[in-house]
Amino acid sequence: MSHSQRLAELQPWVECARSFSGWDHSSLDIRNLDGPLPWDYQAVARALASAASRVLDLGTGGGERFSEVAAGSHARFVATEEWGVNARVAGKRLSPAGIGLAWCSSLALPFAFRSFDLVLSRHEAIDPGEVDRVLAAGGTLLTQQVTPGSWPELRPFFPRMTVFPDHRTEYPAAFRAKGYTVDAREHGSRVAFGSLGDLVFILLTAPWTIPGFDPESDIEALLALETAHGTTSGIVLTEGHYLLSAVKPAPTAPGLATPATGRPSVNP
């Protein structure tokens, strides 16, 4: 089949990716061949939220997962999102549930000291100093991150693929230095993309993975990747995740655990 024919095959995924917002990939054929992760981030987040009074979600995307965490809880929930397109989507989804949204970077938070007793971050970069600043004494950070060496199979075909910083040592060390109790776990697995279109969709909606990625100009590399790593299960890549839980030292004097009042949320 010619390159032009394959590009025509990919066009539906390209068009969907160009109009995509939020962060719901449930319509794609992406399967973990080694089973689920040994932890359930959503379940852990919900359990922590049920016992919290003020909860912050960093980089909420379209708010899909955070709305599930908040469902049924009486805590005050606030989210951040930096990308304007997703901030608008998240605002529309979260506002009816009374969840505030700050349109800002997760690395420079517009909240007062000790504003929250639970900070969540699913795949969003964090600044341990900023998390510590807004987290009340006795509070918890829960974050799931993707390891920087994920999808190494792409790099031979896309040498410009981004080299992400490795925070697996930095994050735990930063919190331990502040006296936090830290638990960190890591897991690697094989992931199958059912078709080349599913992978193209992900690469287009996560443009930081391969800067300047374009299916038309990169078609030869895509087809070579498909030939090298295509199986009966799909295009198989390896990826890793790690889960970090950090609990701030409990207050040493009465009143320190009471969260301060945060600044007003910014709603797009």
How would you describe the overall organization of this protein?
The protein is α/β, with parallel strands linked by helices. It has a single domain, classed as Vaccinia Virus protein VP39 (Rossmann fold, 3-Layer(aba) Sandwich). Helices cover 30% and strands 24% of the residues. The protein contains eight helices and nine strands. The chain has helices at residues 3-18, 41-50, 64-70, 84-94, 128-134, 170-177, 196-205, 219-229, and strands at residues 30-32, 54-58, 76-80, 100-102, 116-122, 135-146, 181-193, 230-231, 234-247. Strands 1, 2, 3, 4, 5, 6, 7, 8 and 9 form a nine-stranded mixed β-sheet that branches.
Structural class: alpha/beta
Q: Mean pLDDT, nearest integer?
A: 92
Low-confidence stretches: 256-268
Q: What is the CATH homologous superfamily assignment?
A: Vaccinia Virus protein VP39
Overall geometry: globular
Characterize the biggest β-sheet. Answer: 9 strands, mixed
CATH architecture assignment name: 3-Layer(aba) Sandwich
Order of helices and strands: HEHEHEHEEHEHEHHEE
CATH C-level label: Alpha Beta
Number of domains: 1
**Count of helical stretches:** 8
Strand content: 15-25%
CATH level 3 topology: Rossmann fold
Rg, rounded, reads 20 Å
Number of strands: 9
Helix content: 25-40%
Question: How far apart are the first and last residues' alpha carbons, in Å?
Answer: 46 Å
